[in-house]
Amino acid sequence: MLTVYGDIKSGNCYKVKLVLSLLGIPHHWHDMDILQGDTQDDWYLQKHPFGKIPLIETANGQILSESNAIMGYLAENSALIPNDPFDKAKMYQWMFFEQYSHEPYIAVARFIQYYLGMPEDRLDEYKAIHKKGYKALDLMELTLKNSAFLVGEQFTLADIALFAYTHVAHQGGFDLKNYPSIKQWLTNVEQQSGFVGMIA
Q: Where does the GST N-terminal domain start and stop, copy by copy (predicted)?
């Protein structure tokens, strides 16, 4: 059986958890606690020398890391990946956007505020990343004004990737009251068959 190593509070791990649930893939979830240093234990570093999560281990011992790569592997030949080449490229465009223009700001702000309790030595960083985080939300709002999901009307891995940290953006101090299209999109994602919450 597939084994998943992840922290249920992590947005990147939640992406994998959500894909597994949506597709009904049997697996064993091995819970890790980042803040307790579980990813630095010797046994885990033998699997992943960088000590990062999420990580999956297949039944025959193959190891795969990086949340978006794991999602792509799990969702191969499913409806979560468009058949049309251009739509598939748009899905990947949003997934790269999530990693480089969204997660570094939305997720890091959440970590500073929600997990670290806003330490004084990170206040300047927090303020700076807020501006960039809102810029990412602005682009999502502009796109979602015209479609139910990020790649038109098809629910894809792009939506899962960006849902993970957007739905808890408030924990990083981001106010979504001026983003009605994003709020509707969050509801659209939550209504998908097989949806499961982050902490469920």
A: 1-82
